[in-house]
């Protein structure tokens, strides 16, 4: 019963490019699936290093579980443009369809036309901090 939401990517006030609603989205609706290549952690580590060497500033690696990562860096969809926000309007959920795990982005609340789609990346805490640019009142200051 899912109809793909009309979305567009464009310049974001948070960070470079973002994903925006082109229609109203109600709370608790599926917004978009995060699509890419399913790879193992070892492959993800190698690719991350290679992307840096190739000058690719952003990689789009999304952890599904302990063993699997979805890499949308070179073969993904618009979901890879969703920015992190400490007060997001969406959340990511791992679902299983026909024995395959998928990452789906759902709305937490109603989203208006031209509103940017955001979710909390929930990066693990590390010593080297990645600054957060969401500028919300509840901003934690870092992504990790």
From TrEMBL:
Domain Post-SET: 128-144
UniProt keywords, alphabetically: Chromatin regulator, Methyltransferase, Nucleus, RNA-binding, S-adenosyl-L-methionine, Transferase
Pfam families: SET
Cellular localization per UniProt: Nucleus
Location, primary (coarse class): nucleus
InterPro entries linked to this entry: Post-SET_dom, Set1-like, SET_dom, SET_dom_sf
Listed SMART domains: SET
Any single GO BP term: methylation
A GO MF label: RNA binding
Single GO cellular component term: Set1C/COMPASS complex
Domain SET residues, every copy: 5-122
Stretches assigned to coiled coil: none
Database matches in PANTHER family: HISTONE-LYSINE N-METHYLTRANSFERASE SETD1, HISTONE-LYSINE N-METHYLTRANSFERASE SETD1A
Protein name (record): SET1A methyltransferase
